[in-house]
């Protein structure tokens, strides 16, 4: 099976390459941060996308590339829609030209967080520009492709050369720096390796539709941070609980965007990992 991965220089893209079966053929792509295993493909450039996809003819595109800085999206609205919305449309159109399947990595932020523990069929109501532009990607995907899947993840983490929430916490606590963490935002932190494994499974089992491929927990950011400290033997006393009111961020955040992941187990036959299981795997692989 041949895969084309966008966002190959990012956290999830890199972990997809790391966990892929040996007999898969992978073509991984970047935009401005090349790695030794990636080729250039700017997803906002329709011609470039079409050229690259027609050249490599993958069976499946796993589309991870995005403008992921949630607060920056509030300042650079056009860019956010160009990458997250139209970039996804460009890939879906190119995939359709060669009859490829496309799996789009989306986000728990498509929900407004009023209820939490969301199922795939629940109504969305994205709050900020990042969330709205990622949802636009979901719409364009379904508009232009006839063979699509959406894999929604939440607070991705894992080993990568750029910091993510978990590696930032580990670094801060290892340097004995106190950190302020919100107690009232709840989600389903997702180990990138585990999400990557399930995305390959969606491809292998040729599934279509929406899947919540997130961590198997409904947990506050504060409790998750305490679990990180516990698993990595770090000083929990450095973690200060704060509320969202005290910890002001530019973009609006859903209060409880946790995802119900039972469909993955039911349809793919594999349960998603809990954060305790994933953090242990992460610690073991350091
Ligand atoms: N991180 C999270 O907590 C989180 C939570 C929910 C959902 N997600 C979703 O999960 C996916 C993967 O996230 P991640 O954290 O692994 O991402 P990441 O580490 O921030 O990497 C983003 C990737 O997107 C690429 N990219 C940006 N603009 C591009 C463009 N115009 N053309 C082509 N590539 C472009 C970047 O390439 P260059 O580096 O070469 O520019 C990079 O490889 C994203 O779709 C994101 O929306 C993430």
How is the topology of this model organized?
Blueprint: E1 2-6, H1 11-19, E2 25-30, E3 38-40, H2 46-56, E4 60-63, H3 70-75, H4 77-98, E5 101-107, H5 129-144, E6 148-153, E7 156-157, H6 165-174, E8 179-182, E9 186-187, E10 190-191, H7 192-204, E11 209-212, E12 219-220, H8 221-231, E13 239-242, H9 262-268, H10 275-284
Parallel strand pairs: 1-2, 1-4, 2-3, 4-5, 5-6, 6-11, 7-10, 8-13
Antiparallel strand pairs: 9-12
Helix pairs in contact: 1-7, 2-4, 4-5, 8-10
The structure holds NADP nicotinamide-adenine-dinucleotide phosphate (NAP).
CATH topology: Rossmann fold
Bound molecules: NADP nicotinamide-adenine-dinucleotide phosphate
CATH architectural label: 3-Layer(aba) Sandwich
Number of helices: 10
Which structural category do the helix and sheet elements fall into? alpha/beta
**Percentage of residues in strands:** 15-25%
Measured distance between first and last alpha carbons: 30 Å
Mean pLDDT over the residues: 97
How do the strands line up in the largest sheet?
3-2-1-4-5-6-11
- CATH level 4 superfamily: NAD(P)-binding Rossmann-like Domain
What gyration radius follows from the Cα positions, in whole Å?
18 Å
Give the helix level as a range of percent: 40-55%
Dominant shape: globular
Q: In total, how many domains does the architecture comprise?
A: 1
CATH class: Alpha Beta
**Oligomeric description of these chains:** single chain
| H and E string | EHEEHEHHEHEEHEEEHEEHEHH
- Secondary structure tally: strands: 13
Low-confidence stretches: none
């Amino acid at each position: 099976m041949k895969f084309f991965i966008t966002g190959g220089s990012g956290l999830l893209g890199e972990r997809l390459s790391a966990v892929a079966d040996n007999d898969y053929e992978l073509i991984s792509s970047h935009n401005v941060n090349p790695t030794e295993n990636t080729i250039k493909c700017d997803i906002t450039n329709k011609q470039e996308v079409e050229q690259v996809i027609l050249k490599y003819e993958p069976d499946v595109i796993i589309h991870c590339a995005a403008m992921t800085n949630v607060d920056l999206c509030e300042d650079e609205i056009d860019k956010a829609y160009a990458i997250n919305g139209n970039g996804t449309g460009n890939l879906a159109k190119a995939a359709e030209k060669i009859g490829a399947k496309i799996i789009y990595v989306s986000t728990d932020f498509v929900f407004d967080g009023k209820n939490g523990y969301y199922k795939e069929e629940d109504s969305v109501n994205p709050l900020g520009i990042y969330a709205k532009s990622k949802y636009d990607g979901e719409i364009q995907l379904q508009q232009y492709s006839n063979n699509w899947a959406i894999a929604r993840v939440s607070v991705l983490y894992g080993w990568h050369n750029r910091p993510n929430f978990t590696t930032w916490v580990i670094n801060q606590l290892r340097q004995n720096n106190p950190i302020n963490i919100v107690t009232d935002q709840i989600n389903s932190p997702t180990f990138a390796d585990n999400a990557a494994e399930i995305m390959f499974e969606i491809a292998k089992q040729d599934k279509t539709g929406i899947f919540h491929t997130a961590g198997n927990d409904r947990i506050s950011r504060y409790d998750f941070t305490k679990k990180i400290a516990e698993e990595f033997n770090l000083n929990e006393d450095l973690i200060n609980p704060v509320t969202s009111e005290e910890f002001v961020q530019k973009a609006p955040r859903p209060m409880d965007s946790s995802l119900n992941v039972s469909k993955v187990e039911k349809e793919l036959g594999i349960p998603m990992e809990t954060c305790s299981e994933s953090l242990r795997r992460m610690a073991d692989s350091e």
